[in-house]
Amino acid sequence: MAHYIATDSKREQFRRYLEKLGVLDMLTKVLVALYEEPEKPNSALDFLKHHLGAATPENPEIELLRLELAEMKEKYKATIEENKKIKAKLAQYEPRQEEKRAE
């Protein structure tokens, strides 16, 4: 009987731990979303993974990649603008099509 009480106590401690951290609420919300899904997905496990994965904190590596992507987009825009300016300058020095035909 003492073994049963110890196990029960551990279960209760673990349940409180999960409740305190919001794990039970999150699981409940995801399971309710699955229940209310009009067309049940082929893989309930994938559904759970997807919905739980969206709620997890970001991986620091992902944040670094996002920052790098933003930098690259800015460099790309600057390069496009520079390219336009250089093309405009080059066009000033190239003979026009009409002048080429006249020669």
Automatic annotation (TrEMBL):
- Any one cellular-component term (Gene Ontology): nucleus
For the keyword Cytoplasm, the answer is no
Sorted UniProt keywords: Coiled coil, Nucleus
Q: Which Gene3D superfamilies match?
A: 6.10.250.1060
Q: Chief localization class?
A: nucleus
| Coiled coil region boundaries | 62-89
Superkingdom classification of source:
Eukaryota
Cellular compartment(s): Nucleus
Name this polypeptide is given: c-Myc-binding protein
Q: Which organism is it from?
A: Sciurus vulgaris (Eurasian red squirrel)
Organism classification: Eukaryota, Metazoa, Chordata, Craniata, Vertebrata
